[in-house]
């Protein structure tokens, strides 16, 4: 027993220290090594090579170490890992190659054959993407560290074989879209960290396989809308962090608001960004009436977080919602008239609107910036048809100011919030365009007769 505790010099590489207990170990950390030592004892179970100056992991570096269970290569200058570098290490359980900032690409077969690996560190490696199939066959993996990289997107089914993965760390990357199949197969995932990315949208089925997820961190992203339907599969969720986003608190937030009434876990605040009169308030604590109507949302300045500094912010004028106008303010008969978010007017003519929708190459006459703004003003002209707008252009403004917009009556009239007053897509009142015309034109006819 005394002999087993004494460092063994026989067969031990230069600048390394070798031990037999608790497991045969080769410790070569912080030795200024530029290459992986040769003559590593074949019976070694643990090899520590962290904090050196290694640049390449060759296919022959560990080819004889079939008993290896732990391999630490973090904090080096590794820029290339040859194909088959870890081939034959069927007993390997933990592999740490994190903090190698020049390792920007990985071979699709780099980890092939590591069927017993349960922990893989790939943090701070400068990775911009992961190749298709890179984790294929790694059925035992439980902990995957991918934080602090430059990952822009993840291919569908990247984690498909990782049915036993419990922790997935993806924070401090540059991911923008969480797609439907990005996390498919992660049926046992317990913790998902996606904070401090650039996420602007989570697709509806993105969390479909995450029925066992307990912790979800999405704080400090560029989210404005997240639906309750997207969150419904997270039946085991206990800890949710959504702060640091720019939430739109109108009808688009209602399904998420409803979901929070069923959610029993812990959650951060969701500070409203728009409308102005709700800015800074917690979405979860709003009243139902606060979420009626829809708000015109111009391009929102978002905060993009640098992968190196948590507090680094970069302004962006990207519009997370695109050009789509929410339809939650309109009655069922009026929804067909919304073709895009570029200030197209409601014509109150179902046949005409149906014809417009059926045309795949619909083109709208060009408008100047000022013209578009006028047609979306708070006045009644903002909700009337183009033809009516032209017929009223020369009327006395005093006759128009007191009018309220009217539309054809709907069977189900949805309430629209009176706040904010700049809500250009909410329609209120009842009646028809003909009533507005008669109200305006009859006094004009009477004036004309009196003057004649």
Automatic annotation (TrEMBL):
<feature type="compositionally biased region" description="Basic residues">
    <location>
        <begin position="410"/>
        <end position="419"/>
    </location>
</feature>
<dbReference type="GO" id="GO:0009897">
    <property type="term" value="C:external side of plasma membrane"/>
</dbReference>
<keyword id="KW-0449">Lipoprotein</keyword>
<dbReference type="GO" id="GO:0045121">
    <property type="term" value="C:membrane raft"/>
</dbReference>
<keyword id="KW-0433">Leucine-rich repeat</keyword>
<dbReference type="Pfam" id="PF13855">
    <property type="entry name" value="LRR_8"/>
</dbReference>
<keyword id="KW-0966">Cell projection</keyword>
<feature type="region of interest" description="Disordered">
    <location>
        <begin position="339"/>
        <end position="427"/>
    </location>
</feature>
<dbReference type="InterPro" id="IPR032675">
    <property type="entry name" value="LRR_dom_sf"/>
</dbReference>
<dbReference type="GO" id="GO:0035025">
    <property type="term" value="P:positive regulation of Rho protein signal transduction"/>
</dbReference>
<keyword id="KW-0675">Receptor</keyword>
<dbReference type="InterPro" id="IPR001611">
    <property type="entry name" value="Leu-rich_rpt"/>
</dbReference>
<feature type="compositionally biased region" description="Polar residues">
    <location>
        <begin position="339"/>
        <end position="350"/>
    </location>
</feature>
<comment type="similarity">
    <text>Belongs to the Nogo receptor family.</text>
</comment>
<keyword id="KW-1003">Cell membrane</keyword>
<dbReference type="InterPro" id="IPR003591">
    <property type="entry name" value="Leu-rich_rpt_typical-subtyp"/>
</dbReference>
<keyword id="KW-0732">Signal</keyword>
<keyword id="KW-0472">Membrane</keyword>
<dbReference type="GO" id="GO:1905573">
    <property type="term" value="F:ganglioside GM1 binding"/>
</dbReference>
<dbReference type="GO" id="GO:0042995">
    <property type="term" value="C:cell projection"/>
</dbReference>
<feature type="compositionally biased region" description="Basic and acidic residues">
    <location>
        <begin position="351"/>
        <end position="376"/>
    </location>
</feature>
<keyword id="KW-0677">Repeat</keyword>
<dbReference type="GO" id="GO:1905576">
    <property type="term" value="F:ganglioside GT1b binding"/>
</dbReference>
<keyword id="KW-0325">Glycoprotein</keyword>
<protein>
    <submittedName>
        <fullName>Reticulon 4 receptor</fullName>
    </submittedName>
</protein>
<dbReference type="GO" id="GO:0043204">
    <property type="term" value="C:perikaryon"/>
</dbReference>
<dbReference type="InterPro" id="IPR050541">
    <property type="entry name" value="LRR_TM_domain-containing"/>
</dbReference>
């Amino acid at each position: 027993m005394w002999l087993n505790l004494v460092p063994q010099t026989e067969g031990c590489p230069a600048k390394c220290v070798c031990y037999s207990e608790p497991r045969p170990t080769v410790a070569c950390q912080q030795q200024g090594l530029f290459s992986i030592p040769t003559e590593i004892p074949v019976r070694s179970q643990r090899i520590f090579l962290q904090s050196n100056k290694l640049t390449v992991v060759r296919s022959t570096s560990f080819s004889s170490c079939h008993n290896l269970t732990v391999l630490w290569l973090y904090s080096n200058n590794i820029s290339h890992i040859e194909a088959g570098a870890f081939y034959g290490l069927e007993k390997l359980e933990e592999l740490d190659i994190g903090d190698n900032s020049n390792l920007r690409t990985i071979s699709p077969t780099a980890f092939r054959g590591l069927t017993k690996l349960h922990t893989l560190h790939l943090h701070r490696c400068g990775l911009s993407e992961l190749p298709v199939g890179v984790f294929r066959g790694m059925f035992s993996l439980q902990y995957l560290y991918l934080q602090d990289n430059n990952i822009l997107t993840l291919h569908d089914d990247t984690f498909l074989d990782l049915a036993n993965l419990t922790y997935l760390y993806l924070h401090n990357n540059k991911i923008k879209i969480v797609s439907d199949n990005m996390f498919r197969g992660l049926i046992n995932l317990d913790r998902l960290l996606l904070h401090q990315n650039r996420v602007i949208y989570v697709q509806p089925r993105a969390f479909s396989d995450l029925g066992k997820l307990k912790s979800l961190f999405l704080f400090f992203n560029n989210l404005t809308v997240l639906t309750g339907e997207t969150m419904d599969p997270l039946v085991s969720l206990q800890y949710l962090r959504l702060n640091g986003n720019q939430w739109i608190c109108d009808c688009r937030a209602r399904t998420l608001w409803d979901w929070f009434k069923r959610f029993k876990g812990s959650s951060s605040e969701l500070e409203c960004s728009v409308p102005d009169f709700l800015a800074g308030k917690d979405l979860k604590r709003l009243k139902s009436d606060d979420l009626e109507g829809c708000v015109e949302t111009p391009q929102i300045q978002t905060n993009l977080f640098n992968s190196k500094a948590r507090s680094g912010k970069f302004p962006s004028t990207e519009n997370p919602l695109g050009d789509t106008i929410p339809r939650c303010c309109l009655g069922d008969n009026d929804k067909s008239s919304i073709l895009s978010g570029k200030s197209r007017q409601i014509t109150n003519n179902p046949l005409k609107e149906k014809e417009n929708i059926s045309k795949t190459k619909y083109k709208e006459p060009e408008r100047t910036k000022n013209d578009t703004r006028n047609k979306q003003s708070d006045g009644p002209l903002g909700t009337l048809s183009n033809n009516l707008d032209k017929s009223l252009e020369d009327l006395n403004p005093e006759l128009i100011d007191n009018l309220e917009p009217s539309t054809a009556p709907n069977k189900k009239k949805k309430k629209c919030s009176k706040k904010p007053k700049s809500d250009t897509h909410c329609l209120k009142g009842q009646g028809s365009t003909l009533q507005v015309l008669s109200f305006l034109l009859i006094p004009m006819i009477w004036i004309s007769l009196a003057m004649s």
